[in-house]
Amino acid sequence: MAKNTYGNGSIYYSEPKGKWVGQIKVGIKADGKINRRTVYGRTKKEVKEKIKRIQAEVITGVYKQPSELTIPDLENSINDNKKALNQISDTAYLRNKYTIKIIQADSIAMIPIQKITETALNIFFSKQTHYSNSVIKKIYAMCNRTLKKAIKLNIINKNPLEEIQMPKSIKSTRKIKALTIEEQKEFIKAINEDNKEPYRTMLLLELFTGMRMGEICALSPHCIYYSHSMIEITKTMTKDSNDRTIINDKTKTYAGLRRIKVDKSVMTLLKSYIDNFFVKNEYDLLFIKNEKLISTNQVNAYYKRLIERYNISDTKGCNQHQLRHTYATRSIESGMPAKVLQYRLGHADISVTLNTYCDVFNEFEDTYIDKTQDYLSSQGIAI
After folding, report:
1. Phi/psi of residue 184, each to 5°?
2. What percentage of the chain's residues is helix, strand, coil (to nearest 5)?
3. What SS3 state is found at 105?
4. What's the rounded mean pLDDT across residues 328-333?
5. SS3 at position 80
6. Cβ count near 182 (within 10 Å)
7. Considering the entire predicted model, what is its pTM?
8. How far is CA 99 from the centre of its chain?
């Protein structure tokens, strides 16, 4: 089997493994023998990239022997590799970095993986219960993934997390509440009275279409089809790997890529904004401020100030996302089928729609049953 020399390493294709294999010298063992690191990949290019990174670590003195690797060390390597190979989005990369920082803040980050025990992990997770259940789930999943990877790398033989159950948060879960009908009326009155563009149009658009604010921030004038009363959603606002606000050419999920029908009042709202406030810009966006992108955080800050100033609803945990929730709630109240709502909201799975709004669906169960029975009776269908 021929080997191709690549710097201090070699790369070859292994027929038995069905993978490309790379080996690189990373030092000398205590017994004087050469210490080599082996990496694998689906392509020769992937292996070359891995070897390059290890070479850089060896040269700069930051390379660690597998026996010295900690959970953050290995997870950073996994995360960076996936980013370099374009296997994860910028958003997912940043989320992982945030989770790694949580682990790094604890003393467990100083313990080499080979020396981590169930006791150490139990103590670590007992100190994470002040986070929400979703954050705890991310921390647990990351540790589990990293330790499984350590087994594959022959760093450990058994995953010490296997026998440990994920803890539950002591933080009270606060659901985003939809505005009541009266609060919704008050909000519309208040935002029209305050009349601050482009926030007014952006928030009313969320309230009457259920679009995500990130999608609204990324809207282009070309995405509005007046003759069909339709909005095309193809992009979203997100952050890149350097935590900078950018427009992503992809929506949050594949289901986020959609065209939604809207009523005439929404088209009138958009046309009025374009006629009176729209300014052509280098980003080709519908909504900008001072020639800069408008972030979801900016919109949210304005929303909170408005709610507080006009005393519309409970300001604790107040978030503009409740306008999307309000749209979904009014849609269910009016009898919109869950499958139609799923499409309009851009949910990838119907279970997301049903689970998120199960309380609202359950509240109207009797109404739907009565409507069904009335329909059957009108058709002369009975037991």
Report:
1. -65, -40
2. 50, 15, 35
3. coil
4. 92
5. helix
6. 10
7. 0.65
8. 13
Q: State how far the Cα of 251 lies from the Cα of 224, in Å rounded to an integer.
A: 17
Q: Which residue has the higher pLDDT, 329 or 173?
A: 329
* Residues 6+ away with beta carbon under 8 Å from 10: 3, 4, 22, 23, 24
Class of domain 64-173: mainly alpha
CA 1 to chain centre: 44
Q: For the chain, which residues make up each domain, given as ranges?
A: 1-60, 64-173, 181-369
* Percent of the chain residues past pLDDT 90, beyond the cut: 51
The answer on pLDDT for 65 being more than 80 is no
- Give the C-alpha separation, 325 to 340, whole Å: 15
pLDDT at 6 (0 to 100): 33
The full length of the chain comes to 383
> 39 with 53: CB under 8 angstroms?
no
Residue holding tokens 């739907």? 368
More confident residue, 176 or 179: 179
Average pLDDT, the chain: 86
Angle of CA points 293, 319, 135, to nearest 5°: 95
Pick 181-369's CATH classification: 1.10.443.10, 3.10.129.10, 1.10.260.40, 3.60.21.10: 1.10.443.10
Does position 118 have pLDDT exceeding 90, yes or no?
A: yes
Residue 323: the pLDDT is 96
